[in-house]
Structure formats: structure tokens, C-alpha cells
Amino acid sequence: MKGIARTDDQRAADYEAVVLAFSHLSNAVISDLAPKGALTTAAETGAVLLQLDAAAVYLCEETTKAIELAATYQLELPSKKTYVPGESAVRKCIDTGAPVAVVDVAADKHKGMPALAKHGIASVLCVPLKVGEKCLGVLMGASNTQRKFTTSDVEVLAAIASQAAFAAWKSKLPSDVVPGQDGASISTSDIELIELANRKIQELAIINKVSEGVISTLDLNQLLDLALDQCLFAVGATVGSIMLLDEEAGTLTIKAAKGLPQEVVEIASTRVGEGIAGWVAEHGQPVLVHDARKDPRFRMYRYRDDITSAMSVPLKARGRVIGVLNANTVEKGRRFGPREVEFLSTIANQVAMAIDNAQLYDRLSRRSAELASLLQISEAITSILDLRQVVTLLSQKFMAMTHVEACVILGYDAETDRFRYLDGQGLTNRKRKSAYLELSLPVATLSISSGNPVMVGLDPKSDCFSEIAQVEGYSTAACIPLTASGRKVGAVALFSCHKKPFSEADIQTLGALGGLAGVAVHNALVYQHTYDIARSLQFKLVPTVPLTAEGLDIGHRFLPAREVGGDYYDIINVAPGRVGVVIADVAGNSVPAAIYTSMGKHVLRAYAVEDNAPADVITRTNRLVCEETTPEVFISLFYGVFDAGERVFRYSCAGHEPPILYRPDGSVERLRADGLLVGINPNIEFEEKEVKLEPGSILALFTDGLTDSPAARGKFGVDDVAAIIAEGALKPAQELADNIYTRLMEIAGKGTQDDVALVVLKVL
After folding, report:
1. Considering the chain, what is the average pLDDT of its residues?
2. How confident is the model at residue 9, as a pLDDT?
3. Across the strands, what pairs with 288?
4. Whole-number Å distance between alpha carbons of 526 and 567
5. Which one of 49, 244, 659, 737 has the lowest number of neighbouring Cβ atoms within 10 Å?
6. How far apart are CA 380 and CA 390, in angstroms?
7. What order of strands is seen across the sheet that includes strand 548-549?
């Protein structure tokens, strides 16, 4: 029992704890346990549910009126003395048959009250144990601190006492007396009480079964079906339904039914105040009807004359009606009475609280899913720029949140007032882009023009009706404009087969989501536009390198880490018999890198064709880059010019990987020259060197992506490149470049996180 007590200030407010406690108590009452065990359970139940410090059960002897302490919980009181602790309050409760509360025990000097104070009791609440009109004793709850007992406290303790009373009654019956048995010395009134007790015990057993059932699940649909079956069984009904109230629309709809035609279940909807269920929902009172045609309160569209008796009781939770429970019978001659109505109302109270909990759980689950979707969309804003990925994610999240059958995402250009298809999911008959556009365009136009989320029906008279919607069976469409910085950038259209799939709260949530989604789509569209430009630049960066130049055989390979990158190389005819070769690496490997790479390439080429010396070309390029770019832009660069007549290679380096020079005698060296990265300091100077290249010499120029890839690090380096060149020294330059590239892919695979550029020059 202690395990179900709440730890906050809402004493006994947790429905599940209350149901478990009463289930535990009713099991004790209807079981074969000794009556004292049931009375002890009653004392414990009262103390735990009201968060009291102790409790006790007193029984009153019918003839002598002597009071006996029958059971206690967390309380040690003397039971065989000349006084009864708390006697004045106990006797007053027995005599009046009404609850008695004493807020300040220490101040009450009546008989037995000082004895309670000696045991540390500050406040007590007494409720009578009654069976019929007989009062058998008192259930007393005690608090060690002063406490003002509420009406709710009294009701809970009285409910416990009503069950404990039957246990007390059983304890007073002779074990060999059976009502109606020959020789049984028992009065008629006692027989009636015994029969009442037996009937109540049977009802307790049913209530206990219902209680255990309705707390076994938080799935609303399962709960409704289970609760309806249990309720109909409890009152012997064969036909019934549970209708839940839509407070916004003011209508009741059937959510669970038994014995009703399916077509009635699907279309039945009753406004509050109309029909039997509507009247019950409006007034919050149960109704018993044997002939609805003769009751002037009711105006029904369809009467069922085969129903011989019917009752409807309100489902109340937290002081409001949340639905109506209907129970009917078609058994001839069978009529419900007030007792069945009272019993069904008792069960309905438990069912209503369970339904309210399940609805709350459902709302919390949906809210949790909404927040998760909002988080994922927020992450998409900052982490995903690929338009295809963004719109696919948004479609999935909108469909998961709203449980609709189809979703279409459109981009919107305010300047041309035109929509563009971005993504669509859900169509079963037509999956073409044009079909998604045709389906969503009317409702998207309506939403964009109003600037607000809209929800419309798709009946043939609707302006948003389309043949596609009719074929797919869609009844309702909703559309949310996507906005970013106050601009309309698109729309999300949702299509459902249900007539009212969204509440006003849903539409508001979707509207907020549209703001986040709009930013994600806008960022992706901007990036896509920039990316297209950069890709175009990148395409122009990849050189159409001639396989030969005067005195040279040329090979090359290029692998960007992304579709656009910052590495490039170029072969430049600077003068007759003089060929320039450049390889560079702009910091980064995305769109900005491609843009700056394009600028650097054309600047250097412009200076190179003037037949300037390599050091002069890099110096002038460095000054312009420093002037025209932001401080974080820098470029590693190697530039050299091969003079075919002299077979001399003159070169300068700006912080780049030194090329590998392989000579026909098998020796290998690195071509190094001093110089900082381009873009750091406009006033630095670059060293220029030259080297003699005899026929058969091989020069390999590359970016650091070749030897510094994380997957290849420690497995593929400069020595490996030199070894591949030495092994294939007699092969053409392009084959050497291909062999180096193939070896890198074998080791690093797709693990290259930086661009790779490679140029191989073989002197003829």
C-alpha cells in the first residue's frame, strides 16, 4: 500500500493509486480472509490514500453499545481498559451516523480525547461503518499534525468505510447460520442485510474487475473497448457504446460500440443537448429510458424499437463531462432499474478517470513527438543544407506528426508568384511530380495569399477539389505557409481521408512548425543556388590538360572531397617552348573554397601568360588575394615553368607540398623553396629556384589530400608515391598518375576528407 502513495500535496489525487487501493481493499473484502484482515486493510487504505499517519477501526456491540478496537494501522492503542481513546468522537459518529472531524485533539477535553493526544494524535476524522441503516462501528483516520479535512477527504474515507462495513458485518454473523436454512435463528431484517451485503460484495467484485482492467492500458482505443465490455457485462447489457465529447465542436461521437451496425458507428454524431446522449452530456445526469418515443425531452433521428430498456450515464473527470456511456438491452421483458443506473454510474466514474488519463497520455505522447520533430527540424536548419535531404525530412516529420495520408512541399517565388514542386509523399495512384503539384496547388495558393494556415474540405463544391483528391479518397486538406525572415518561401500541404483530422491546437502547432521549416527550406534553397554557381565554377576549374606539351608527357587525376572543392591544377603555355604548371589548395572544400579557387586560378594565369618569373607571378597573386579576400582565405601554391630548350625547370613555392623529382639514375628529391601561404601577408617575398631535368626525369606535383588523408595516414605517403614512380618509370605519365590514384583508393577508399589533385610530368 505504501508504494501507491503520492509524494506531492495532491492527497489521493492520483487516479491509478486510488483504483489500486480500492482494488486491494475490495479483494480483501470479497476473499475468504478473516474479517479482521479486511478491517486492517481498510485502516491501511484510508491512511495511505489520505496521507494520514495512522488509522483505526472501532466496532460497536449492538446490544451493550460497548466499543471495541478491532484493527489499527501504525497506531498502538489500549483496547482492554476502562476507557476508549477518542471515545467521544467515535460515539458521536455512531449515534448520528455522520462523519465527525476534530481538528485540534489536544483542545478537546471530552471523553477519550486526551488519551489520543497522549499518543501524539493532533487531528482525527471519523466516518461510520454502515450496512443499510445499521451503524456497526467507525473508521478513524489520524494525523500527527493539525489538519483541516476536506470534503474530498470525507468522501474517500466514507467509500473505504462502506466496504469495511461488510467485512465487519461478516465478522458478526454466526459461522453456522445460513439464511433460509431450517432452524436458523436470524431475523428478517438480518436476512435482508445479508442479502444486501452479498449483492454489494458481488458488485465490489465486478468493480474490482473493471478497475483492474481500465488501469491495465494507456492506449485509448484498447481502453475504450475493454471498458465498454466490462461495463456492459456488469449490468447485463447486450448493446452499448462509449461516446466522447469534442469540446471545440460541441459534439459527441462513438469511439467504441458493441451490438451496433458499423455504418451507424461511423456516421453517428450528436450535438450536446440533442438526443439522449446529448441531454446527458449537457446536464451531467444519468437517464433511464424504457420508451424514448414517449419521452418529450428527446428528439431522435432514428429510434430502435427492439431496445427494451436503455440507460445513459455521464463520464465525468476532473469536474467536467468528457463523454457518455450508453447501455441497452434487447432482451424481452428485461428492464433496468435505479440500482443498475447507480451501479453503472459508479463504474463510469472509474472509466471516465481512466479515459481522461489515457487522453492526457495521448496528448503528452503527441506533444513529445511534436517536440522531437521540432528538434529535428531545428537541427536540420543548422546542419543540413542539401535541399533534397531537407524536404524529405520535412515530409516525413509532418506526416508522422499529423497521421495524414499525403504531404506535398512546394517552394514559392514571390517575385513571379509561382510555385515549384520540391517533394511529395503518399499518393498511391499517381506518383508523378505533376500529380502532386495539381493536388496541392489550389490549397497552397489559398494559404500563401492569406499568409496563414488553412484547413478546407475537398467536396466537389470546394475550390480546392481535384480529381486526384477524389480518386485517393481525401476529405480534408490543410496547408501551412513556410516563412523565413517574414518572407514566404513555400508551403506544406497535408491531405487526410478524415473529415476533421486537425484541431485548432494542431493548426497552431503546425503554424509554428512552418516557421522553422521555412528557415530550413530557405537556407537549403539559397545554398542550392550558391552551390549551382560554385559547381559551374568548379567545372571550369578542372583543366582540359593536354597529354603532351613541348618536351613533356603529362598525366593528371583529380578527386574533390565534395562535389565542389578548393584544389586545382593548370597547364599554361606562357611562351613558345615554355610551359607553366601550377597546383594549388585553397583552404576548405566547399562552395566558398570553389569560388576563391576560381578567382586565384584566373589571377595567376593572367600574370603567368605575361611570361613573368615564377616568384614574381606568386608575389603579384599574393598581393591581389590579400586585398580582395577576407582574412581567413589562404592558398598553398606551387608554380613552375619548364623551358624545353634548356631542359630547365624554374619554380617557387607558397607553403605547398614540395613536388617529388625522380631522376633516371633512381635518385629522388623534393623541390623545396621558401615562401608563406598566399593571402597572409601582402609584403612577403618568395624564393625562386631552378633544376636541370634530363630526359626520363619524372616530376609529381600533388596536394596534401594525397598523402594526408585520415584513412591513409601512416599507410600511404611520399615514399609510396616515389616507389610507384620508380617501379613504373618507363610507363607513360598518365598511367603513372592512374597507378598512384588507384593505390590511394585501395588504402583510403571513400575516407578521403580533403580534395586530391595530382599532376605527373615526364621529360621526353
Report:
1. 80
2. 38
3. 311
4. 24
5. 244
6. 7
7. 548-549, 552-559, 756-763, 698-702, 660-662, 668-670
CB 313 within 8 A of CB 289: no
Equal fold, 217-363 vs 384-530: yes
Do 166 and 201 touch, CB atoms closer than 8 A? yes
Give me the numbers of helices (H) and strands (E) for the chain, helices first please. Answer: 18, 27
Element (H, E) at 624: helix 614-628
pLDDT score recorded for residue 10 = 42
Cell triple for 281: 452530456
- Torsions phi, psi for 108 (to 5 deg): -95, 115
Within 13 Å of residue 271, how many CA atoms lie on the same side as its CB?
Answer: 5
pLDDT of residue 673: 95
DSSP states of 152-209? HHHHHHHHHHHHHHHHHHHHHS-TT--TT-TT----HHHHHHHHHHHHHHHHHHHHHH
Separation of alpha carbons 246 and 254, rounded Å: 11
The conformation of residue 678, written as its DSSP 8-state character, comes to B
- 315-352 pLDDT per residue, tens: 988 788 989 998 888 877 788 888 788 878 877 877 78
Q: How far apart are CA 377 and CA 603, in angstroms?
A: 42
Please name the helix (run of DSSP H) or strand (run of DSSP E) that holds residue 388, with its range, or none: helix 387-402
Separation CA 48–CA 73 (nearest Å): 10
Contacts of 291 (CB under 8 A, 6+ apart): none
- CATH class, domain 542-763, is alpha beta
Q: Which of 705, 701, 698 is nearest to 732 (CA)?
A: 698
Contact 268, 364 (CB under 8 A): no
Backbone angles phi, psi at 680, to 5 degrees: -95, -50
Read off the pTM. Answer: 0.42
CA-to-CA dists, residue 179 to 35, 168, 191, 412, angstroms: 19, 18, 6, 85
CB 226 within 8 A of CB 214: yes
Q: Are 556 and 547 in contact (CB under 8 A)?
A: no
Beta carbons of 30 and 204 less than 8 angstroms apart: yes
What are φ and ψ of residue 572, in 5° steps?
-125, 125
Question: Phi/psi class of residue 112: alpha, beta or left (left: φ > 0; alpha: ψ in -120 to 50)?
Answer: left
Question: Apex CA 248: angle with CA 242 and CA 252, to 5°?
Answer: 20
User: Residue 494: how many CB atoms within 10 A of its CB?
Assistant: 29
Low-confidence ranges of the chain (pLDDT < 50): 1-16, 19, 30, 32-34, 175-188, 191, 301
pLDDT at 96: 92
Residue 651's contacts (CB-CB under 8 Å, 6 or more residues apart) are: 614, 638, 639, 640, 641, 671, 673, 688, 689, 690, 691
Q: Quick one: CATH architecture of 217-363?
A: 2-Layer Sandwich (3.30)
Q: Does residue 585 sit in helix, strand or coil?
A: strand
Nearest CA-CA partner of 498 in 516, 473, 520, 521: 473
378's CB contacts (< 8 A; 6+ apart) are 516
Nearest to 86 by CA among 47, 125, 49: 125
* Backbone angle region of 577, left / alpha / beta, with phi > 0 → left and psi within -120 to 50 → alpha: left
Contact 451, 488 (CB under 8 A): yes
What does the block give as the cell for 362?
A: 495521448
Give per-residue burial for 35-54: e unless 16+ CB within 10 Å, then b. beebbbbbbbbbbbbbbbbb
Residue 326's nearest CA partner among 314, 308, 340 is: 314
Reported as half-sphere exposure (CB side, CA atoms, 13 A), residue 730 has a value of 0
- Give CATH for domain 2-173+185-209: 3.30.450.40
Contact 311, 239 (CB under 8 A): no
User: Domain locations in the chain?
Assistant: 2-173+185-209, 217-363, 384-530, 542-763
Measured in residues, the chain has a length of 764
CATH superfamily of the 384-530 domain = GAF domain (3.30.450.40)
